[in-house]
Amino acid sequence: MTTSKPNLLGPFIRLHREKITPTQAGLTVHGRRRTPGLRREELAQLCAVSTTWITWIEQGRPVHVSAAMLNRMSEVLQLSAAERAYLFNLAGRQDPSAPAARTLPSHAVLQVVHALDTPAYVLDRYWNAVAWNKAASAHFAGWLDKDGDYRDRAPNLLEFMFKDPTAPSFVADWESRARRLVAEFRADVGKHLEDPALERMIGKLCASSRTFSDLWSSQDVVDREGGHRVFHHPVRGPCDFEQTTLIPATSVDLKLVILLPV
User: Fold this and answer.
1) Do 133 and 48 belong together in one domain?
2) Residues 77-86 pLDDT 10s
3) I want to staple 182 with a disulfide (CB 3.0 to 4.6 A). Which of 51, 117, 215, 232 is the partner?
4) What does the DSSP 8-state code read for residue 191?
5) Where along the sequence do coiled-coil regions lie (predicted)?
6) Is 172 within 8 Å of 212 (Cβ atoms)?
7) How far is residue 13 from each of residues 81, 90, 119, measured CA to CA in Å?
8) Residue 229 lies in a domain
């Protein structure tokens, strides 16, 4: 695999190489130096790679960068947690030491959800609804019309959309929304496609819904967007909302979705 953002990865590594001194990196310095930071050959030695490899990656050439190598480099360069995450992101690699996906929203996020008098809910990485308010429960008949916040079997948005027989009549322009929803989901989970739980979930959806299977196979990818949403509520009739999605700063695997009446 080649680096996904080589033009950004190289300068980032070079900057941090030049910021750390040989003494900080555990090397013994002999004589005077023209630069206080690490030389390329010193970084290469500490990372157990060739100087040519370091040179090429700093020049932005498409070289192979493994997760193990990024782990070693982040240790040598003494990167902070945020800097380490950024390094892995620039290299297009998943950090094996990254914390597991947060499955429950924080107390602060729950307070926001329940303080709203308009439909609001929280989705996790798998698009399970892990929290919702009374307005969402009243609006999403067949999906969130239950009491409470979280269960062992959390209601999944994609399962509702593709397996519940009421969804096509509840969601206006269902075919268009279904196509976009799958494309948004692919974009959202792209960096987690090797997650076994995610693989199982997608496999079950493909097996139980031909429509989902066909849309998933189309490989469409689009950013998740808000905008105008229309629903046909079984009691209230047509309902128009403006949808927006927010990502909690401390829980990037969660999404807070809010529907504002138009």
Assistant:
1) no
2) 999 887 888 8
3) 215
4) G
5) none
6) no
7) 15, 10, 45
8) yes
